[in-house]
Automatic annotation (TrEMBL):
<comment type="similarity">
    <text>Belongs to the NadD family.</text>
</comment>
<dbReference type="InterPro" id="IPR004821">
    <property type="entry name" value="Cyt_trans-like"/>
</dbReference>
<comment type="pathway">
    <text>Cofactor biosynthesis; NAD(+) biosynthesis; deamido-NAD(+) from nicotinate D-ribonucleotide: step 1/1.</text>
</comment>
<keyword id="KW-0520">NAD</keyword>
<protein>
    <recommendedName>
        <fullName>Probable nicotinate-nucleotide adenylyltransferase</fullName>
        <ecNumber>2.7.7.18</ecNumber>
    </recommendedName>
</protein>
<keyword id="KW-0548">Nucleotidyltransferase</keyword>
<keyword id="KW-0662">Pyridine nucleotide biosynthesis</keyword>
<dbReference type="InterPro" id="IPR014729">
    <property type="entry name" value="Rossmann-like_a/b/a_fold"/>
</dbReference>
<dbReference type="InterPro" id="IPR005248">
    <property type="entry name" value="NadD/NMNAT"/>
</dbReference>
<keyword id="KW-0808">Transferase</keyword>
<keyword id="KW-0067">ATP-binding</keyword>
<dbReference type="GO" id="GO:0009435">
    <property type="term" value="P:NAD+ biosynthetic process"/>
</dbReference>
<dbReference type="Pfam" id="PF01467">
    <property type="entry name" value="CTP_transf_like"/>
</dbReference>
<feature type="domain" description="Cytidyltransferase-like">
    <location>
        <begin position="22"/>
        <end position="199"/>
    </location>
</feature>
<keyword id="KW-0547">Nucleotide-binding</keyword>
<comment type="function">
    <text>Catalyzes the reversible adenylation of nicotinate mononucleotide (NaMN) to nicotinic acid adenine dinucleotide (NaAD).</text>
</comment>
<dbReference type="GO" id="GO:0004515">
    <property type="term" value="F:nicotinate-nucleotide adenylyltransferase activity"/>
</dbReference>
Length: 228
């Protein structure tokens, strides 16, 4: 297997005003829903950097079906040459379970003075109170929560997270301080999942609009997600 290529996350050390987003996930495979989320976050918050960070050993779901190197390559193809976007393999280089709090602590250490934003969909956000050391995450970064059709905010989170005190409604409000704010964005209507993509491949259904054409070509070359 080709060695994993690390990505430097310290490019923003010189600027205390740097805004850095982190979008994690299995990316098994990366699909157009992921890219729509990333674009919305990057543009809405005027981020200097956006790191797409594939998970190695997940805590809340089954392991990936494709290899770490394959997921990295699909991400690189999907990201292309977008300025400020990085495919970050820090979690893949760890041998332990991937926890968001560990990733954000490393990002904080590598980017002193920057403001960090953890980007995620509302379906993942609804499970936040079950995450490892989730309270510490709120001390490390802000949250940008993006909508998904048919998924509502879990009722218990409002009180658990003290949402009334933490919620903000604009990028300007989000960046007033370095961590602890939550911004909910309800205008993203893309409803695609990696499970849906894998199912379409295994059933020989079309993938129009679901994945990047270069990603699709790579999946076909590698024989990914096809029934044996």
């Amino acid at each position: 297997m080709t060695p994993l290529t690390s990505v430097s996350t310290s490019a923003s050390n010189a600027s205390e005003l740097a805004r850095i987003g982190v979008l994690g996930g299995m990316f098994d495979p990366v699909h157009n829903g992921h890219i729509s989320m990333a674009e919305r976050a990057f543009n809405l918050l005027q981020l200097q950097q956006l790191h797409l960070t594939p998970c190695h050993l997940p805590n809340h779901r089954e392991p990936a079906l494709s290899s770490p190197q394959q997921r990295l390559q699909m991400l690189r193809l999907a990201v292309g040459d977008r300025p400020g976007w990085y495919v970050n393999d820090m979690e893949l280089r760890r041998s332990t379970t991937s926890y968001a709090v560990d990733t954000m602590q490393q990002m904080r250490a590598d980017n002193v003075g920057a403001t960090l934003v953890f980007v995620l969909g509302i379906d993942s956000f609804n499970t936040l109170d079950t995450w490892h050391r989730w309270q510490d995450l709120l001390k490390l970064c802000h949250f940008l929560v993006l909508s998904r059709p048919g998924v509502e905010l879990a009722a218990q989170l409002s009180s658990t997270l003290e949402l009334e005190q933490r919620q903000v409604f604009s990028a300007e409000q989000l960046f007033i301080k370095q961590s602890g704010h939550i911004m909910l964005v309800n205008d993203l209507a893309v409803d695609i999942s990696s499970t849906q993509v894998r199912s379409a491949v295994s059933q020989c259904n079309g993938l129009d609009g679901l994945v990047n054409s270069q990603v699709l070509e790579y999946m076909n070359e590698q024989g990914l997600y096809q029934l044996s």
